[in-house]
Amino acid sequence: MSPDHSSQAPASTATERRFWLTGVLEYVGMLLVIAALVLIFSSLSDRFLNLRTATTIANQIPDLTLVAVGMTFVLVIGGIDLSVGSVLALSAAVLGVVMVDWQWPLWTAALACLGAGLLCGVLNGAVIVGAGIPSFIVTLGMLEIARGGAYLVTQSQTKYIGAAVEPLATPLPGVGVSTAFVIAVIAVCIGQFVLNRMVFGRYCIAIGANERAVKMSGIDSRPTRIIVFALSGLCAALGGVFHTARLASADPNAGVGLELAAIAAVVIGGTSLMGGRGSVTRTFLGVLIIAILQTGLAQVGATEPFKRLITGAVIVLAVVIDAWRHRLPIQPWAGISRLWSRSPTADKG
Amino acid sequence: MTSGGSAPILFAAHQIDKHYASPVLSGVDLQLAAGEIRALLGANGAGKSTLSKIISGLVQPTAGKMVLRGQVYAPASKRDAEQAGVQIVQQELNLVAGLSVAENLFLNRLPRRFGCISLQRLYRDAQQALQRVGLDEVQPTAPVESLGVGQQQLVEIAAALARDCRVLILDEPTAALTDREIERLFAQLRRLRATGTGMIYISHRLDEIRAIADTATVLRDGRVVGTSRVSELSVADMVRQMVGDVVAEPRRHRSYVGAPVLRVESLSRAPAFQDVSFTVQRGERLGIAGLIGSGRTELLRAIFGADRADSGQLWIGEERQPRRFEHPRQAVAAGVAMLTEDRKQDGLLLTKPVRLNTSIAFLKRLRHGWGTLNRALETSDANRLAAKLSIKCESVEQPVEELSGGNQQKVVVAKWLLRDAEVLLLDEPTRGVDVAARAQLYEQFDELAARGKALVIVSSDLQELMELCDRILVISAGRLTAEFPRGQWSEEKLMAAAFQGYLHAEECPLDVS
């Protein structure tokens, strides 16, 4: 830190404020959306605005939050992980089997569960990086493989565990939120710190922004990319622990479609699907928006089809607003409209 | 062909203003007559590209109005401008990889028959369009990415010429072209001029402007300094108007050559280059001259480990053990850096701030315990480098995509200055960089050499190599054909050596007579 750098720099404080302000505004926007949702549901239902709803939401989201934290990193490097829901189920299945059939205590069983998720993630990363195959395809394969694994491990039976895991998901006395929620929030904080303040996070952002430039800067991006997929698997496994705790049983059908909810949360949080830009805290706000929407709609008596319709619309709207804000021309559109336009007569000559 | 006040006014811009965070253009007036080629001159960030983007509808002005053929002209998009007959060929290539040359040429108006693309007509039209810019040897069906950068540039020009073209804007069209390609382009432009098309021509190559333009408008800091006839303007005049009152002293060459630091032996990578051997010394600026496609870029990439060499080896410094880099990581760790030709694709994190771009090659420097980043050091490094290289940015937090080309290049240089590499491989380091920024880069190279760094400079600009280098190697058709120490070269000798490899080659891409 040089004390005189301000005198050498061409920087102006006004512009620094401008960049800082845009950063703050991205949070303000999301908080306003949350406030608006709360207002709308409170006016529609007098049972919505109370502590019980808040704790219900808080205790529903730890698994989605964890999966979304891992997914944020995956999207930041420009990848996608479709296998998280299945990996969550497989890890949960491992947890159920070792606790029920082998009578392991919770903490060793949780380690086995995390190991299973990590293994899936490492496999994803190794194939994506080693064979140079798009993550979309590889994780699509893993989506099937891990789901099959979950059925095999549990013999397609839900494993009832009961009191041994439930404490994780039950509200802490006096606080109202569960241990799982607290851990999830801590994971969000760690994730945000890693992405913004650590060398690893910087590599992730740089790889997403321009992997070729990263290579030409003398950086081998392969280890980073493998680690990111490994982390996503690990997060999914921890999500599996929380999911199991909430249901008191390991369900091989758990987490179907969870990858899409997670991607939606991450994208609502403003992380670019193209990579290079993202925030874990805003992903968390994205999770909250989805959860509030789900719970609120359920309370005002919306039917399942209607809930899905609204949720889908909100996701698309969020991305449209995000694209506007970054003044990105939505490229495929421009391309399509160009191809459809009628040809002028000038090309005859 | 003269075109003075007598020719009808084709296009006029009145009091154009453009503000982003700060003003980029203020009160710009411009009048273009039919059949006039107007050069637009100015240093980096003077507003040339912004003005051309406004005229071509890519950007809308904050204030001011434009008139085209007597009618108010306010294009809301590039498409509007194209339909009004205003075409632009931008500095950056805008081709769609994966599509053929013909499809790229007629992308927004593919000939149709019963709703399907008429391939027959498409290829016939494309053939004609290509012939017009001298790309006879290019197949319309070839994928556009199989072409070299120079040829791609010509394809873009061909696409603009194939449209209804009343005003044509060319932004650095010759940056990637060989002399022969430039000649052919100029012949085409002169033909267009004869048909009454008005052209705005942006280039840093002042010789070219003297050769092709009728009049020149000089911009400085977003304002018009003056417009004059090119025939009444010397190169020195142009430079003076662009940079203001700063008088550039003629550069003096000093030599700092020391002990060998990089030795390359029999390096080959088919089909780009074969059996290349040379040695670079500390403090030496070694030029590599050659035509585009002669294997220059591929050679640097193979040394750096970005591509894998088939055979051969290299030694760094005093090392006994020969080696070959398999990945740029190894090269950078060994003290070798590379400035790539295509800074947007290979050099920069475009959407990211200057600060992230200067630190990316040397994050190790910022590593605290447990891998946390020292952001204060990162910011002060970035500020120091921005000041040292006079990078024109609002702040180091500004995304590099908002900077002008020359300033972007300075950011890439800053990255490697921070890394303090021993050997710098520079591929077209001043491409698309204006006179003032170029002088600053040369100064940096001088300073690096004085500090004992070895520089290997690839450039299409022979003047640049002759000005900078202690020694020049010439590569032709993938082989080194000549070596000239300082004082023994001339432009003719260098050119002769650059063509030598193609004279007896079986597949002769250039017919030299």
In summary, what is this structure?
The complex is a heterodimer of chains A (349) and B (513). Chain A has 349 residues and is an all-alpha fold.
Structure overview:
The complex is a heterodimer of chains A (349) and B (513). Chain A is mainly alpha-helical and 349 residues long. Chain A has helices at 5-8, 13-44, 51-60, 62-76, 84-100, 106-131, 135-154, 179-197, 199-209, 211-216, 222-247, 258-268, 280-299, 304-325, 331-340; strands spanning 159-160, 249-250. Chain A is 71% helix and 1% strand. In chain A, α6 (106-131) packs antiparallel against α7 (135-154). Chain B has 513 residues and is α/β, with parallel strands linked by helices. Helix content of chain B is 33%, strand content 24%. A six-stranded mixed sheet of chain B has the order 6-9-10-3-11-12, with helices on both faces. In chain B, strands 17-18-19-15-20-21 form a six-stranded mixed sheet, with helices on both faces. In chain B, strands 2-1-4-5 form a four-stranded antiparallel sheet, with helices on one face. Chain B starts with 8 loop residues before the first strand and ends in a 10-residue tail after the last helix. Classes of the chains: A mainly alpha (349), B alpha/beta (513). Chains A and B meet through α1, α2, α9 and α10 of A and α10, α11 and α13 of B.
- Weakly predicted, low-confidence segments of chain A: 1-11, 328-349
The rounded Rg of chain A comes to 22 Å
- Multimeric state: heterodimer
Distance between the termini of chain A: 65 Å
Helical percentage of chain B: 25-40%
**Shape label of chain B:** globular
Largest sheet of chain A: 2 strands, antiparallel
- DSSP summary: helix tally of chain B: 17
Alpha carbon gyration radius of chain B:
24 Å
How do the helices and strands follow one another from N- to C-terminus of chain A? HHHHHHHEHHHHEHHHH
**Annotation, overall tally of beta strands of chain A:** 2
Described by the principal axes of the CA atoms, the overall outline of chain A is globular
SS field, number of helical segments of chain A: 15
How many DSSP-defined strands of chain B? 21
- Average of pLDDT of chain A: 86
Sheet-strand content of chain B, in percent, reads 15-25%
User: Span from first to last CA of chain B?
Assistant: 29 Å
Mean pLDDT of chain B: 85
